[in-house]
Write a structure and sequence with these properties.
single chain, alpha+beta, Multidrug-efflux Transporter Regulator, Chain: A, Domain 2, 4 helices, about 25% helix, disordered N terminus
């Protein structure tokens, strides 16, 4: 059973919440890769090995130095790494690193937390998808 998803989730280059907020604060000015990495709070190697090969918009000056506009980088980053919601009958497999359909799901209830348990059709890993959470009043 082969599933084709139109938009694959890009995992390389993902940032945590603090780093994503720092990307939103980038100015409309040119940053060197080192300056950009310090502003965001990442290793400079991620800029060179993930973002630039991934299509990050940049310019080179006459000395072949790389310059990245902060505002343009922010727009590119938000487009490439946008949140992609899962479909109604899907869950995310952490082993396969992709969205997979729920197969023979079993609905469980634990202290107001309603979730579906299933297994990945590719690797067999047990998967959980939270359906609803009812907080006690």
């Amino acid at each position: 059973m082969s599933n084709v998803y139109p938009e694959e989730i890009v995992l390389a280059g993902r940032l945590d919440g603090r780093q994503r907020n720092r990307v939103k604060g980038l100015l409309d000015m040119m940053y060197s890769p080192r300056e950009l990495s310090e502003e965001i709070g990442i290793n400079v190697n991620k800029v060179y090995m993930v973002y630039l090969p991934g299509g990050c918009p940049h310019e080179r000056d006459i000395n072949r130095h790389i310059w990245i506009n902060g505002k343009v980088f922010r727009g590119w980053f938000e487009e490439v790494y946008q949140k992609r919601p899962l479909g109604k009958g899907e869950t995310f497999c952490l082993t396969c690193k992709k969205a997979v359909p729920l197969v023979e799901s079993e609905r469980k209830n634990s202290d107001g937390l309603i979730y579906d348990l299933s297994s990945c059709p590719n690797c067999g890993r047990r998967l959980t998808r939270i359906v609803d959470q009812k907080k006690a009043k």
